[in-house]
């Protein structure tokens, strides 16, 4: 990046930064119409029980099929949607689609045990006054039990959260919705603070599982995860691990007592039919 070296030098443009800014601007202005035109879609990634390997549910992950740029991941547009406020209607759409999908899985599954659905919430949705009512309405309209829904909130969104911010989450938790603390371990939250939060699941960030790619794993990583799991369990929290890419990782994490896992080792995020197949194979052995 060029910097002015004093005097009357020209600022040299950084063409890459300019291109990024132009794309960002273009994407931002295209977002509202994209929602109206139905350019967003959701992929589902299975959540697998580490004890018996069964599929217990899935996390909904939104994508944008952009007419010029192709499929864009959430990291490209969620921050823009948060900035403009579009995240509220977009998030509501994701919740509605995901709840409908979970209901459809349950119907096709019969007695195979209910598949649960995890949906990510951004901090702006947390502070939006309609969150609880919207969620209640969607669950009712689609006919899904509150117990089958888990809302994921990042650790950083809840750092220093006051009671006003936690109130809607408490209401949802009282209804039976699980609240998961996503990307746990990347923020700086005080562990004792966990007791104050209406959270029932810790999702351990992928950075922890990365240290377990090799066998034997990094002993320090093992100790840290072991400590977190025992703390979580003593607080009655279940532990889900993200980013499991190898069988060795899965095995280590199972031994360490983690409850549920998610990652490419089991399946990449994919279309809803894929989850149905995985769960069905699993249910019929
Ligand atoms: P997240 O909630 O932590 O989701 C997990 C991310 O890890 C996903 O990235 C997933 O595709 C990726 N992943 C899963 N397994 C593996 C693995 O084994 N290895 C590696 N390297 N990666 C793996 P994705 O889909 O790009 O989503 C990124 C983030 O975008 C999510 O992180 C979540 O914070 C956010 N996001 C996604 N959908 C939504 C949404 O509907 N609303 C909001 N507010 N945020 C969303
Ligand atoms: Mg998540
Ligand atoms: Mg996560
Ligand atoms: Mg993560």
Your description of this structure?
- This protein has 285 residues and is of the alpha/beta class.
- It has eleven helices and nine strands.
- Strand 2 and strand 3 (70-72) form a beta hairpin.
- Helix 1 packs across helix 2 (74-84), helix 3 packs parallel to helix 5 (131-142) and helix 3 runs parallel beside helix 11.
- The radius of gyration is 21 Å and the shape is globular.
- The N and C termini lie far apart (58 Å).
- The structure holds ligand C2E and magnesium ion (MG) (3 copies).
- Ligand C2E is lined by residues 45, 61-62, 73-75, 78, 91, 94, 120-122, 152, 182-183, 206, 242-245, 262-264, 269.
The global form is globular
Strand order of the largest sheet: 1-2-4-5-6-7-8-9
Number of helical stretches of at least 4 residues: 11
Mean pLDDT: 89
Q: Please give the number of β-strands.
A: 9
What's the arrangement of secondary structure elements?
Layout: H1 15-37, E1 40-49, E2 55-66, E3 70-72, H2 74-84, H3 87-109, E4 116-120, H4 123-127, H5 131-142, E5 149-154, H6 155-158, H7 163-175, E6 178-184, E7 201-204, H8 206-210, H9 219-234, E8 238-241, H10 247-255, E9 260-261, H11 272-283
Parallel strand pairs: 2-4, 4-5, 5-6, 6-7, 7-8, 8-9
Antiparallel strand pairs: 1-2, 1-9, 2-3
Helix pairs in contact: 1-2, 3-5, 3-11
The chain binds ligand C2E and magnesium ion (MG) (3 copies).
One magnesium ion binds at residues 182-183, 203, 242.
């Amino acid at each position: 990046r060029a910097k002015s070296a004093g005097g009357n030098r020209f600022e040299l443009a950084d063409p890459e930064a300019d291109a990024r800014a132009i794309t960002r601007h273009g994407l931002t202005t295209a977002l509202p119409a994209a929602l109206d035109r139905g350019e967003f879609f959701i992929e589902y990634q299975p959540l697998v029980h580490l004890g018996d390997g069964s599929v217990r549910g899935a996390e909904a992950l939104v994508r944008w099929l952009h007419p010029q740029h192709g499929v864009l991941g959430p990291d490209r547009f969620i921050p823009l949607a948060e900035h403009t406020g579009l995240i509220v209607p977009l998030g509501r759409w994701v919740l509605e689609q995901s709840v409908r999908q979970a209901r459809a899985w349950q119907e096709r599954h019969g007695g195979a045990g209910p598949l649960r659905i995890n949906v990510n919430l951004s901090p702006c949705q947390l502070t939006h006054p309609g969150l609880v009512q919207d969620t209640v309405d969607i669950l009712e309209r689609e006919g899904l039990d509150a117990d089958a829904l888990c809302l994921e909130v990042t650790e950083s969104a809840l750092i220093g959260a006051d009671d006003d911010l936690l109130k809607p989450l408490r209401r949802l938790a009282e209804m039976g919705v699980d609240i998961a603390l996503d990307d746990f371990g990347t923020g700086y939250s005080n562990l004792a603070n966990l007791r104050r939060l209406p959270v029932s699941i810790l999702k351990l960030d992928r950075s922890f599982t990365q240290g377990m790619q090799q066998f034997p794993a990094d002993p320090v990583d093992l100790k840290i995860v072991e400590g977190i799991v025992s703390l979580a369990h003593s607080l009655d929290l279940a532990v889900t691990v993200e980013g499991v890419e190898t069988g060795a990782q899965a095995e280590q994490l199972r031994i360490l007592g983690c409850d549920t896992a998610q990652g490419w080792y089991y399946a990449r995020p994919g279309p809803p039919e894929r989850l149905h197949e995985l769960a069905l194979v699993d249910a019929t052995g």
